[in-house]
Sequence to fold (323 residues):
Amino acid sequence: MLVKRIDSDSKGHVDSNLLPENNSDFQLFVHEQPENSYVSIVRVEMLDRILDGFHGLGLNVAGVSAGPFSIGILSSLLEPEGRCLVGNWALEFNNHEIIEVKTLPEEEISNYDFEGECISSLLIGAYSLAVKYASGILGSEAVNENLNTGFAYRRLSFITVAFVFVLLFLSLFVNFLLFDKYSKDYELVTSDYLRSETLITELRSSEEELLKRKQIITRAGLEGNSQFAWYADRIASLMPSKIVLSRLAFQPAERRMQPGREVIFTRSSSILEGETTDILKVHEWIGYLKKEPWIVDVEIVSYNRAEDVKTGTFSLEIVFDER
Fold:
């Protein structure tokens, strides 16, 4: 690394003609000050090796400076006058400006005091560079561009990863909402299906029961329009007041119905059962019934009355014409 003094104007600006242009082999670090400025020259290859070493350790380089001139930012704090050590260099200050730079032939160490903190001259350069970074002065343009590019890349990577995570979270959230909705819809459909299946089963059972009843009615000859309601009304209208009916059955079964046995009905017949306190009223009623044109015959099947009871029970059979 070379350190060279170059001329500058009263404002510290260096004539660009004094600096090499478009030289990709060297990196320049300029320390501008009134009248006399300094430039540190370092090979880009060496600088890249140093930076790669830090990157290989997983460290991010925030700023780079070559030579001892990074201490310039601390001149107002240190107020150096005369000889000042920075690393392996000895700097001569006059009115807070560097007027001479020499390489130390042997290692010398001095300490600087900052608010009670002791900083070695070997570390003062790195400390100054940290102050530069905190002040927003990050060194050369090439390093700044590299840092800005790295920062932009990391920021872009962070935004991309954050966007992917947000998108993934939204996808999972939407998927949860859709799954919850479809799950509830599925439960409703399943419930409706089970309910419908139960209704279908009951309907089929009812249809089978209805078919059995139809078969029974068909075998009993009870299909078509029936006059039984009119017959029942006529029988009741002719019944005397002292008779109380307990049973009225048209086309009764010939025998008691039992599971597995065929039911046989007596066609054109009706059974009447009831109670009366006067058996003569039953005979009177039979006379009325025989006068009906649709009745073929009426006879008393049974009559029972205990000696100590006034009311007797009777049973009549009426044979009628269904035509």
